[in-house]
Design brief:
Blueprint (H helix, E strand, L loop, with lengths): L1 E2 L6 E12 L3 E11 L9 E13 L2 E12 L15 E13 L2 E12 L7 E10 L2
Antiparallel strand pairs: 1-2, 2-3, 3-4, 4-5, 5-6, 6-7, 7-8
Length: about 130
């Protein structure tokens, strides 16, 4: 909970996560709620994510994630107050770990905006991680 001096609203956030992981697969889910975002009364944002991965070869995993974020509709309005940022997201990819400290992943990401007049955003990514 965050209280801002000189403001009437209290901004609060709560997150819940549950998951499971072993050497072959993992999955999890998260729910998040943010009340009075930016200390504005009744400007709430909420969302959830589902994620998972599966070992398909000794050094290779496939993974996916689904996200959904929405905002509430204020009294007297017909659309959510944060419609321009409300969206559904999808990520799917494959990760290869040739040696202990090197990871290479390719993934595809789609972002579906809730606003009907907004453009769909899609992208391909190639990530390389080297840890020391």
């Amino acid at each position: 909970m965050v209280i801002s001096p000189g403001r009437q609203s209290v901004s609060q956030q709560q997150f819940f996560f549950a998951g499971y992981s072993n050497k072959i697969f993992s999955f999890g889910g998260e729910y998040a709620m943010h009340w009075n975002r930016e200390f504005q009364d009744n400007h709430d944002v909420y969302g959830f994510s589902i994620t998972g991965d599966f070992l398909i070869l000794p050094a290779t995993r496939i993974f996916a994630r689904y996200d959904k974020i929405d905002s509430n509709i204020l009294s007297g309005e017909s659309v959510p107050w944060n419609l321009a940022n409300d969206e559904t997201g999808l990520i799917a990819g494959i990760e290869y770990i040739p040696i202990k400290n090197i990871k290479i992943a390719a993934n595809y990401q789609d972002h579906y905006p809730a606003a009907k007049n907004a453009e769909l955003a899609s992208a391909l990514f190639l990530n390389i991680e080297a840890s020391f």
